[in-house]
Amino acid sequence: MGSRSEERRREVLRRLEELGKTVLEQIKEGKSPHIDIPVRSLSNIEFDEEKMMLKLGSKVAKRSFLNVAHTRKFMQTLLVAAFAKELVEQNLHTSLRDMYYALKRTIPGTKENTFEEQTESDAVVVDIEVAKDILREEMHLNADVRGRVVGDVTIIDRGDEVDWSKLGSGGWAIPSNVEDIEFKEVNADYILVVEKNAAFERMHEDKFWKKENMILITTQGQAARGVRRLIHRLAFEHNLPVIVFTDADAYGWYIYSVIKWGSMNLAHVSDKLGTPQAKYVGLTISDIDKYHLENYTIKAKDVDIKRAKELLNYPWFQKKEWQRELQLMIKKGYKAELEALSSRGLRFMTQTYLPEKIENKEFLP
Amino acid sequence: MGSRSEERRREVLRRLEELGKTVLEQIKEGKSPHIDIPVRSLSNIEFDEEKMMLKLGSKVAKRSFLNVAHTRKFMQTLLVAAFAKELVEQNLHTSLRDMYYALKRTIPGTKENTFEEQTESDAVVVDIEVAKDILREEMHLNADVRGRVVGDVTIIDRGDEVDWSKLGSGGWAIPSNVEDIEFKEVNADYILVVEKNAAFERMHEDKFWKKENMILITTQGQAARGVRRLIHRLAFEHNLPVIVFTDADAYGWYIYSVIKWGSMNLAHVSDKLGTPQAKYVGLTISDIDKYHLENYTIKAKDVDIKRAKELLNYPWFQKKEWQRELQLMIKKGYKAELEALSSRGLRFMTQTYLPEKIENKEFLP
């Protein structure tokens, strides 16, 4: 573990202890113990125009032990915080599901269980994230895992030196937790993030990342926390532009949106997971016309149109370029997949489409 | 590419050419051209008791150009075979979806499209697999991708030497196509295949694969073709036992079943994807009692019971140990996840449960 992460580890421990100490002091002073938890409902989510990120507002709720409506959650909060402290102290990682099983028990002398459903312990983890401004990964609670990466980058991870340019056809499987990774050498002009693994494999086979001197990442669908955090760290710590490449549909654009601005249910950690400097290279609805892909589009379903209309109203999609694209999609009534580019030949994507658009900086903001 | 794969590549080309040549000869002889395709419907799927694998029976259907009901499929078969031949010749890989887009067009002078839906081209790929006994991966058509691996193994892939023991917390992302991988050094006593990534990460963190001198693979749900083929190749080429570890439910047991005996819709390639020597270590329903996990079980839903009853009737689940387990699950009416073991402590799985069961060879067949 590098010194950066060792320092942060101590800080995380300090904050978790602080939570317990505050409660202890309140009890000693004869007060009803409580914990302050920022409100995470939609009413408290804002779009920060300056930082270009979703964030939480300033509303805070008190969780009191002696309020019968809060007692159960109060108990759960302390259980989870104590468990996380133990994980960090022992340098042990686990999943949310494991934690749920590890903490579930019947309270002696009662018929009451500490937790009935995993949703209860999951929610408490987010409460602690927000209240103490620590990432779930920093509490050693691992998230879902998806995504792979290749590029001219050498990292140090758990004592191993891993060279992302020498991994054959497979690439490095991005773990759920990238907090402790150290970037030893990063030779790249930018990061290209692609939604689909098929496109990733095609580009990897053509050594497109080498020709372009970039880091190639696939999210394999909606970006998992580990991937978002990896993109964020690379972009910020190494000052790299980020280019995102998804299907031309509302689902693909939302993947972009989450990478760039953050997501609503994780608005409290946008500053650690979001990458506002990201740009969108395609596929756009305008591309369909420009590159003669009309015969390879898919008729949009009602749900596609509905979703596009929702995006139209999000504050972070108000730039005129996005408004035009979204309107165009609704008007044309079709969407298209990355694979549509293969109708122009299997190497069209790596030899024509992407090099042209990236060279000319034809991006959406 | 090793000489093994170069030789096989020429054989694949020869078989694809053969398909076209046969048709050409039939035309020259003034016959109605046809292609013989083995029947893949359930009526032609058998369980080979000796080889312990699902396989296709001997029924074959004629696909004739001059039979109006066959003409379209006949044309599609030749299109796909020609496309695959080109891929192999150019040493280019792509996905099924890309191929669909690349081959879809309107036949000049008509309003007829070569393909309307991807299901059509997907089906033709399987027809060619069966008719010519070549894997889809050998035609350079890549499958879905999932799964990661760590262990004391060095492979050569696309000229890179990749050491699976030095990949930090991430592991090697198993690609969709593992045909061309060469195993340079394999130091392992067995392969442990685990369904869930969370368990994989837990074991990886404890360096469990090092202590046990084994190769650790996670399928991340149902095993993708790439993972099944990798397990098969390691097991057969290096004579390694395979141990499978899944949730105690019908879905987990079916993952085991597919790794070991093959699946019904891919019965024609069981001999290349199946690994009959695989054994099942857990989680079993009997474990729940033995390891005091009753409080961490989940009530089985109707669909779980229904699925368990189906497994009871499969010829390949007739061994008495499996019959007992399946009956027990139906009787108890519960299932359990790997994470239930965490109720006994986060290291219970790697320090007690697995070492004990593996040491004592407590496996289901």
Measured as a percent range, the helix fraction of chain A is 40-55%
Strand order of the biggest β-sheet of chain A: 10-7-13-12-14-15
For the termini of chain A, the CA-CA separation is: 37 Å
Q: Sum up the overall morphology of chain A in one term.
A: globular
In the CATH hierarchy, the architecture of the largest domain in chain A is 3-Layer(aba) Sandwich
The CATH class assignment of the largest domain in chain A is Alpha Beta
The biggest beta sheet of chain A, please? 6 strands, mixed
CATH topology call of the largest domain in chain A:
Dna Topoisomerase Vi A Subunit, Chain: A, domain 2
What portion of residues of chain A belong to β-strands?
A: 15-25%
Oligomer: homodimer
Number of domains of chain A: 2
Unreliable stretches of chain A (pLDDT < 50, length at least 5) are none
Largest interface, chains and sizes: A-B, 55 and 55 residues
Structure summary, number of beta strands of chain A: 17
* Mean pLDDT across residues of chain A: 93
- Structural class from helices and strands of chain A? alpha/beta
Please compute the radius of gyration of chain A using only Cα atoms. Answer: 23 Å
**Helix segment count of chain A?**
13
Description of the structure:
- Two copies of one chain form a homodimer.
- In chain A, strand 8 (153-157) and strand 9 form a beta hairpin.
- Chain A has a six-stranded mixed beta sheet with strand order 10-7-13-12-14-15, sandwiched between helices.
- The first copy, chain A, has helices at 3-28, 68-90, 96-103, 118-132, 197-205, 208-212, 225-237, 250-261, 270-273, 285-290, 302-313, 320-332, 348-359; strands at 34-38, 45-48, 53-56, 60-64, 94-95, 141-142, 148-150, 153-157, 160-163, 172-173, 182-186, 190-194, 214-218, 242-245, 279-282, 298-299, 334-335.
- The first copy, chain A, has two domains: 3-142, Arc Repressor Mutant, subunit A (Orthogonal Bundle); 148-359, Dna Topoisomerase Vi A Subunit, Chain: A, domain 2 (3-Layer(aba) Sandwich), CATH 3.40.1360.10.
- The first copy, chain A, is globular, with a radius of gyration of 23 Å.
- The first copy, chain A, starts with a helix and ends in a 6-residue tail after the last helix.
- The mean pLDDT of chain A is 93.
- In chain A, helix 1 (3-28) runs antiparallel to helix 2 (68-90), helix 2 (68-90) packs across helix 4 and helix 11 packs antiparallel against helix 12.
- Chain A has 13 helices and 17 strands.
- Chain A is an alpha/beta fold and 365 residues long.
- At the A-B interface, strand 5, helix 3, strand 8, strand 9 and strand 10 of A face strand 5, helix 3, strand 8, strand 9 and strand 10 of B.
